[in-house]
Amino acid sequence: MWRDHLTEIIVFAVLFVGVSALGFVAAKWRRPTDMEHLDEWGLGGRNFGSWITWFLVGGDLYTAYTFVAVPALVFGAGAMGFFAVPYTIIIYPMFFLVLVRLWSVSHRHGLVTPADFVRVRFGSPTLALLVAITGIVATMPYIALQLVGIEAVLKTMGVTGESTVARHAPIIIAFAILAAYTYQSGLRAPALIAFVKDTLIYIVILVAIFWLPSQLGGWGAIFDAAQAKYDASPAPGDGLLLNANNQLQYMTLAFGSALALFLYPHSVTGVLASRNRDVIKRNMSALPAYSLLLGLLAMLGFAAIAAGVKPLPGANPGSVDTNTIVPVLFDKQFPDWFAGVAFAAIGIGALVPAAIMSIAAANLFTRNIYKEYLNRAASPAQEAKVSKVASLVVKVGALLCIVLLDPQFSIDLQLIGGVIILQTLPSVALGLFTRWFHKSALITGWVAGMGLGMWMLYQIANPATGRMHFAGSAFPLDKFGFDTKATIYVGFVAVLVNIIVAVLATLVLRAGKVTDGPDGTAHDDYFVDEDSPRRDTAPEQGEPVAVA
What we know:
Blueprint: H1 6-25, H2 38-41, H3 50-61, H4 64-77, H5 84-109, H6 114-122, H7 125-156, H8 164-185, H9 188-216, H10 218-231, H11 247-261, H12 265-272, H13 277-286, H14 289-298, H15 300-306, E1 312-313, E2 320-321, H16 325-333, H17 336-374, H18 380-404, H19 407-421, H20 425-428, H21 439-458, E3 474-476, E4 487-489, H22 490-511
Antiparallel strand pairs: 1-2, 3-4
């Protein structure tokens, strides 16, 4: 009952409302003379310095879903759940190589989205459209999963009711507030809130990592309890250490997830809002500090085992909601007032990434669908207005994912989202370094990778949840005819096929002398300094793109 959690609810509500107020105030923070421009509303004026960018990008990549899902995966599968730690380490050199270069190109040419870059780099509106649609589709379930984090907290506090309306009413109210201040303040809102969000999360994790062992007999006792649980489990892939059945999955999932993370539109949006390349470089050096935080966070899964935590019932009869592992742990082990602080950290941790993701998806729609196909003569003010409305639509779509679907299925959708966004790697990431690929070959590779990825995902079942298809991203190799119980990350295989097909198709088209530029020749690359004058509009099709 909610009355048993009154202190937690009060602390949670006060912090949540206070942070929401910051979201509205952000419209006047570093406010330009004209907010009716996509550079200002959607990219914060492209003028964020090192500290703001550090909190913004960190808040963008480490979400409420991370807070509840990583420890829950460790709780259920053990060492496999730590795949998130190496992938958030190897991601930053990739960020350094790719996104610093993308910032330079976008700064020079006034580009707002990855699809903008593809459009002018390869002179192909069709390829840009595919990249834009891919980004929007992959982002939607990611936004929905921020709701999963909030819902897990509300369920633990007994706030949600039995009926569908009562169960989702608090979520709808929270996202209505989010929609309102994002519409008004744009990217400045999550940038300002990120300071509070990250501070709260650091406090909660550091307290938890010292407080919980003192209550549970020390880390030795915690690891012993986890080992006993996994020894009694019949599952072949769990345990304190990796084994032959999950090592390949671990490696490919970590590497594939790292590749996917910097391709997500919200990652690009956070970086393009930076003032200059030096800001990005400093942040790529400092952001691995979050990986330490994530490693400590994952350890809470072991602590939950030692504490005897049981997940709360799920939406369907007989099911359980594994996302409640961490909130229930905090509820059992922390004083009520600090449990409220911890719950607020999770809830606020959903607001920052959800806002950035919705803005990024809205920018894709505005620049690469609305302006390209519906209103080529759109003014900057019209672009900003359409993007604001599109961000509301995206939030509504994410909300419907939670209201209409089982949240556990939404988590499967996020895994599918990683497979989907990876198919933009050849055109976006590789396209920054070479224009050797033929645009038609890139489209062919996208079709091949997406088709194979969807087929592989369709083959994945999870008897524990009753799902026979699209129940995860770990593909059993025995379905390829191998005599093994090992699995591999679908996204890794799909993007590898994508690249191979794109290479082969390019060789065939080049051998057949099939041209890929509007004038029959490839655009020349040339290098520019980051301080070169910026333009307000993207280049036209056929105009060379500067790559610095």
